[in-house]
Amino acid sequence: MSSHFYTHPAFIVPVALTCFALFWMAIVTLLGNMSGWKAMHARFGLPPGVVAPRGALVSGRVGVVNYNNVLRVASDRFGVYLSVLSLFRSGHPALFIPWNETHTMERKDFLWTKRLRFAVGRPVITMVVLPASLFNGTPMDMKP
Prior knowledge:
The structure is a single chain. By secondary structure, the chain is α+β, with helices and mostly antiparallel strands. Helices cover 24% and strands 35% of the residues. The protein contains two helices and seven strands; from the N terminus they run ααβββββββ. It has helices at 9-35, 37-44, and strands at residues 56-62, 65-75, 79-84, 95-98, 102-110, 113-120, 126-131. It has a seven-stranded antiparallel beta sheet. The protein is elongated, with a radius of gyration of 19 Å.
């Protein structure tokens, strides 16, 4: 009777989990590149040792990619902090975007959702769409 090491569950399970984790990281990194997150990080990445404030967990859009309840957004008098949940961190390092690098703001209201769409960077790196309520009392406050 011949036993094959490659068909034993003690081998298959760790290999399958490792392959899934690598596949997940590749897909999430690809989404970060497609959205413009990588390009934003080149200009607006947080310096090492600086921790972004823990902001609200929201849905939004960066470039062509929708982030449903995985974006952490916080703002202060200097700018807006963007990060994602740790499960999606591959290819999405934390960002700090100064207010003077946001422009072309446009309010998008649909039914009960109020969103703010704005460009990031000069020249434009990408467009970001976030809930308008996050920016009350900031330079991006666009109350009607």
